């Protein structure tokens, strides 16, 4: 995805039909390419464009159509066989079922794939060299360790033959260097990356100011650099080292230019941000959920996003340019804060209908926009801030220094675990070849055939990879039952219960499943092994249940499996089953029950206390609210979701 043209060429080579002047965000989830048709001049933001869906236990493949001059907004889903007609515009946080969300052309201004980018010469002469230079700086510690390895005194001979090379790679004295490289890559490189990004931001890119978005090459380059230097992955890698929920993340945002208050509870999964940190204001005692997106720019303007003291931004929310979330206001799960909207103090909002949230409580200052209240008071103080920062809790709360030490140790464990298969495979292959050819060392041995070496390495790697999988499984399952134990329904605030702290420690430990851009669970997607994994964590799973066949990229994977019951024959795609609420920092757990032969499609979500009865279906990006009951054989759609048909009558 170096450019739109190269990305579109890749999709065409994979079988998609893509017209001229099409702009597709590199973070867009596109698959089943042969079923995709995108017309001339279409614009697609970071959304889901897939021809795959689940339908009553079966795989459904359908055509995806995005017409000419149409657009698809951020975090939206285009469902199979339900396309976006030409010259229509699907707003943010919508689905192609939501025809009302397509009528307003103004939403196209919010689509980041329509934003102009620097021309090729600017990128070739400045943009890419800056990115490569930062990458080279961050690779210096690894290069230094490699140089030390190459200069080791025990490397006495030149590598002239294949046997010399194999002997060199299988020398056990190289093992500490292999582990060291992975540890540096997991700990030192992310820190150097964020330091370099801060330096470039402060001394090269400079601050962003609200107003018109200039289209000069200099301004376009500034936005392009920030988007790549301060990506979600970059901030997430560093937050794993400094504590995902704590003030280390606040320091990072402040260094990048944001105004961040005290006692902010950050999400376990970093939020997607457009990069104009100077336009982001976050008050005291704000609580964030995971996987939300914050955008401060439109196609032609830069506008601030303000989150006042005590506000709550829950999971998978979208905050659009110019929005303000008032003091103690709640933006619930899967909600949207629309362009230039003000959500009044203490108001409560949920979901998205026509790219606008549904109001559940009108709050205190209805009909007027009060002055910004970024400083907290007694009404904004949350249990997390009281426990962690004021040290007022009924149990021992880990200080930040201890959190950072634990996080770094877990990162070391993750690095060692993922380096182990190749290192162990080389040593095992060496012993296999010794036994096979009956010689004492490689240096004095005759040449071994390439086939023998290849077979020994493949056989060895299969064994060591399976060993890594079993070690990870033991770490994660034992960690769950040791740190968290059996969950029970109830309230567990940070200042009265140690559960949130133990849960935070456990979620940090689960990061060992991630390595090299993949998760260990990716090997289990849609297989019986995924069901076995969640059974080991306490989930009650019936026979023939299929979990996450396309992975869990857009929603948090099942967070509290021991409070979830799933009946026989049910199919759960990239959907969220969340038994907890952390509204205004008040943490509670309530079980969820999913019946037999239930289908939850991509980005569907069920909140705590929800029930989905037998034979029902929850369609794409639909939200089953807290305590809702989806009756037997119902089909629910929307955010918040409601019944639209009976399953046996749905065409």
Describe this entry's structure for a reader.
With 651 residues, the chain is α/β, with parallel strands linked by helices. The protein has 13 helices and 47 strands. The chain folds into 4 domains: 4-114, UDP N-Acetylglucosamine Acyltransferase, domain 1; 123-381, no CATH class; 382-523, no CATH class; 524-651, Hexapeptide repeat proteins (UDP N-Acetylglucosamine Acyltransferase, domain 1, 3 Solenoid). The two termini are 37 Å apart. Keywords: Membrane, Transmembrane, Transmembrane helix. InterPro entries: Trans_hexapeptide_repeat (IPR050179), Trimer_LpxA-like_sf (IPR011004).
Q: In short, what is this structure?
A:
The chain crosses the membrane at residues 130-155, 175-200, 395-417. The chain is α/β, with parallel strands linked by helices and 651 residues long.
**In percent, how much strand structure appears in the residues?**
15-25%
The coarse overall form would be: globular
The share of residues in helices is 25-40%
Instruction: Give the number of helices.
Output: 13
Strand order of the largest sheet: 33-35-40-43-46-47
Gyration radius from CA atoms, angstroms = 26 Å
Class computed from helices, strands and strand pairing: alpha/beta
The biggest beta sheet reads: 6 strands, mixed
Secondary structure layout:
Elements: H1 4-13, E1 17-18, E2 23-24, E3 29-31, E4 36-38, E5 43-44, E6 48-50, E7 52-55, E8 58-61, E9 64-66, E10 71-72, E11 77-78, E12 89-90, H2 120-138, H3 140-150, H4 162-169, H5 175-205, E13 211-212, H6 217-229, H7 232-242, H8 247-255, E14 259-260, E15 272-273, E16 280-282, E17 287-288, E18 293-294, E19 301-302, E20 305-307, E21 312-313, E22 318-319, E23 324-325, E24 330-331, E25 336-337, E26 342-343, E27 348-350, E28 358-361, H9 383-388, H10 400-437, H11 450-484, E29 490-491, H12 499-509, E30 514-515, E31 518-519, H13 528-536, E32 540-541, E33 546-547, E34 564-566, E35 571-572, E36 576-577, E37 580-583, E38 586-589, E39 592-594, E40 599-600, E41 605-606, E42 611-612, E43 617-618, E44 623-624, E45 629-630, E46 634-638, E47 641-646
Parallel strand pairs: 1-4, 2-5, 3-6, 4-9, 5-10, 6-11, 10-12, 14-16, 15-18, 16-20, 17-21, 18-22, 20-23, 21-24, 22-25, 23-26, 24-27, 32-34, 33-35, 34-39, 35-40, 36-41, 39-42, 40-43, 41-44, 42-45, 43-46
Antiparallel strand pairs: 7-8, 13-19, 27-28, 29-38, 30-31, 37-38, 46-47
Helix pairs in contact: 2-5, 2-6, 3-5, 5-6, 5-7, 5-10, 7-8, 10-11, 11-12
């Amino acid at each position: 995805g170096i450019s739109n043209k190269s990305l579109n060429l890749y999709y065409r080579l994979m079988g998609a039909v893509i017209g001229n002047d099409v702009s597709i965000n590199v973070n867009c989830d596109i698959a089943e390419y042969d079923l995709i048709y995108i017309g001339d001049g279409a614009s697609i933001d970071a959304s889901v464009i897939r021809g795959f869906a689940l339908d009553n236990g079966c795989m459904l493949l359908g055509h995806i159509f995005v017409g000419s001059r149409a657009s698809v907004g951020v975090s939206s889903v285009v469902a199979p066989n339900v396309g976006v007609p030409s010259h229509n515009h699907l707003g943010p946080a919508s689905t192609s079922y939501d025809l009302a969300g397509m009528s307003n052309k103004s939403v196209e201004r919010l689509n980041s794939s329509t934003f102009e980018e620097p021309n090729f010469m600017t990128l070739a002469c400045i943009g890419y060299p800056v990115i490569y230079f930062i990458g080279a700086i961050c690779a210096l510690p690894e290069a230094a360790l490699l140089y030390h390895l190459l200069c080791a005194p025990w490397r006495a001979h030149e590598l002239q033959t294949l046997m010399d090379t194999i002997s060199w790679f299988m020398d056990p004295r190289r093992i500490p260097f292999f582990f060291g490289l992975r540890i540096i890559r997991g700990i030192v490189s992310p820190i150097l990356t964020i330091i370099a990004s801060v330096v470039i931001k402060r001394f090269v890119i400079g601050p962003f100011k609200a107003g018109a978005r200039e289209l000069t090459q200099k301004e376009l380059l500034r936005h392009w650099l920030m988007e790549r230097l301060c990506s979600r992955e970059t901030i997430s890698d560093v937050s794993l080292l400094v504590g995902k929920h704590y003030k280390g993340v606040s320091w990072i945002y402040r260094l990048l230019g944001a105004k961040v208050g005290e006692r902010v509870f950050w999400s376990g999964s970093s939020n997607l941000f457009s990069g104009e940190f100077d336009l982001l204001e976050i008050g005291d005692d704000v609580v964030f959920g995971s996987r939300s997106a914050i955008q401060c720019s439109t196609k032609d303007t830069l506008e601030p996003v303000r989150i006042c003291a005590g506000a709550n931004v829950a999971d998978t929310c979208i905050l659009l340019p110019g929005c303000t979330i008032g003091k103690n206001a709640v933006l619930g799960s899967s909600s949207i804060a629309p362009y230039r909207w003000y959500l009044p103090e203490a108001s409560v909002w949920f979901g998205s209908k026509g790219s606008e949230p549904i109001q559940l409580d009108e709050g205190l200052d209805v009909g007027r926009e009060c002055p910004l209240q970024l400083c907290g008071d007694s009404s904004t103080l949350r249990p997390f801030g009281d426990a962690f920062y004021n040290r007022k809790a009924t149990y021992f709360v880990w200080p930040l220094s201890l959190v950072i030490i634990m996080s770094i140790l877990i990162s070391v464990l993750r690095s060692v675990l993922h380096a182990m298969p190749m290192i162990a495979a080389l040593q095992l292959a060496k012993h296999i070849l010794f036994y096979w050819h009956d010689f004492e060392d490689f240096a004095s041995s005759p040449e071994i055939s390439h086939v023998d070496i290849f077979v020994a390495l493949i056989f060895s790697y299969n064994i060591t990879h399976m060993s890594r999988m079993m070690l990870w499984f033991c770490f994660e399952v034992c960690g769950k039952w040791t740190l968290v134990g059996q969950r029970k329904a109830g309230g567990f605030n940070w200042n009265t219960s140690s559960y949130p702290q133990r849960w935070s420690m456990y979620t940090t430990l689960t990061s060992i499943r991630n390595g090299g851009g993949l998760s260990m669970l990716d090997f289990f997607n849609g297989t019986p092994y995924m069901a076995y994994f969640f059974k080991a964590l306490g989930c009650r799973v019936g026979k023939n249940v299929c979990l996450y066949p396309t992975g869990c990229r857009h929603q948090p994977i099942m967070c509290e499996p021991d409070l979830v019951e799933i009946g026989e024959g049910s199919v759960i795609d990239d959907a969220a089953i969340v038994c907890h609420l952390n509204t205004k920092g008040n943490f509670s757990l309530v079980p969820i029950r999913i019946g037999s032969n239930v289908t939850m499609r991509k980005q569907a979500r069920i909140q705590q206390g929800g029930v989905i009865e037998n034979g029902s279906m929850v369609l794409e990006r639909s939200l089953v609210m807290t305590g809702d009951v989806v009756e037997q054989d119902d089909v629910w759609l929307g955010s918040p979701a409601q019944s639209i048909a009976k399953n046996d009558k749905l065409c």
